[in-house]
Amino acid sequence: MSEIGLYVNNSNTKSWTVRNVQPVEYDVVLCENVLDPANPSILGPIPGQGRVRRLVVVDAHVDALFGQAIRAYFDGNDVEYRVLVLEPGETNKTIEASMLVTTAMDEFGVDRRREPVIAIGGGVLLDIVGYACSVYRRATPFVRVPTTLIGLVDAGVGVKTGVNANGHKNRIGTYFAAERTLLDRKFLTTLPRRHVSNGLAEILKIALIKDRELFDLMEVTGEHVLEAKMQPGPGSVDPALEIIERAIHGMLTELQPNLWEKTLERVVDYGHTFSPSLEMAALPALLHGEAVCIDMALTTCLAEQRGLVTEEERRRVLELMTRLELPTWHPLLTAELLEKALADTVRHRDGQQRLPLPVGIGSACFVNDVRPEELAQAAAALEDVALAQAPAVHA
After folding, report:
1. Among 231, 124, 243, which Cα is nearest to 187's?
2. Which residues, 6 or more positions from 331, have their beta carbon under 8 angstroms from its beta carbon?
3. Among 363, 358, 290, which residue's Cα sits nearest to residue 330?
4. Phi-psi region for residue 118, left (φ > 0), alpha (ψ -120 to 50) or beta?
5. How many whole angstroms separate alpha carbon 186 and alpha carbon 71?
6. Does pTM surpass 0.90?
7. Cis bond leading into 276, ω under 30°?
8. How far apart are CA 204 and CA 146, in angstroms?
9. How far apart are CA 34 and CA 42, in angstroms?
10. Quick one: how far is CA 175 from the chain centroid?
């Protein structure tokens, strides 16, 4: 039985099988000057008649930096709007924060289909708003405008939403696509240097598991694009744009055939086996990309132990992480945390480890037989290398 339809099953006890599919279409658009009142991208097509209304959700950091420009955008387009400001940061990524959004939707009187919520902020804010919109009246459209690098290349391009709960990262969430995501890298000029590094970790993930050319480009230009906060260079030189485009295309290539994660072997889970537990244990000391980077450093050492990565490749990977001012080690990366993290991941991946490991640079495989003693050995090797390197300095 493969076609869409309603089927009456032939059995002593009558039963029915309903088979259907839900089409998904959303746009991810690189653009400039999205807050220019003359740019219609945020508002999109306006169906029907009457005054346009929008609920806009931002975090406090974004409001401090861009609040005036955001309000001028909607004022300039004669939009009736309300701005909801949420507290920033992973510690505030909670079900309570998402309920603040649903309350604001009620109070503003958001129309279920014609008035998409506008989310302007980093990955945490986008996840909170996405989750709230997915559950409010069971589906309320929203538009994402990421303002961080990790939002541009990771949190803003897929369909997953989520909030933290019970001490776990993204323990409550849904699959719900935004109508569109507008990627304007000019927002990145206001980021602290550390948050640019944080986003580069997710770009490096794509390079390590599927794009050797991206890794080579980051080796040559990584420190420059970090210093320039992913902005164009002089003249026509723009390696940052190529890095961003390759990262987004690589991510979407992996996500598109498997949006609902029916297949649990996902190379984009690289760096996300041990990092959720480490990130939550270390809050607020580690940013998401930093925890992912430590996970990738650990599993690079594990891959070296298994002969999947050479010593020279491991050296290049860890040296690039350090040059990008990303951490490769944390004191909480203990045997106890690693074992608990792996056990939780096994439950998440339907009873198997499905652990992505790099094969050289630019490819990956999956393993299901990692032993605790292997993890301890890899962690010890990583600690020796990481502590011999100069610590990253963030400004």
Report:
1. 231
2. none
3. 290
4. beta
5. 18
6. yes
7. no
8. 19
9. 7
10. 13
Q: Are 286 and 327 in contact (CB under 8 A)?
A: yes
- Nearest to 57, CA basis, from 175, 150, 140: 140
Catalytically annotated residue among 14, 93, 160, 262: 160
pLDDT by 10s per residue, the chain, length 395: 568 998 888 767 788 999 999 899 999 999 999 999 999 999 988 766 678 999 999 999 999 999 999 999 999 999 999 999 999 999 999 999 999 999 999 999 999 889 999 999 999 999 999 999 999 999 999 999 999 999 999 999 999 999 999 999 999 999 999 999 999 999 999 999 999 999 999 999 999 999 999 999 999 999 999 999 999 987 778 999 999 999 999 999 999 999 999 999 999 999 999 999 999 999 999 999 999 999 999 999 999 999 999 999 999 999 999 999 999 999 999 999 999 999 999 999 999 999 999 999 999 999 999 999 999 999 999 999 987 775 544 43
3 state DSSP class of 263: coil
93 catalytic per annotation = no
DSSP 282-307: HTTSS-HHHHHHHHHHHHHHHHHHTT
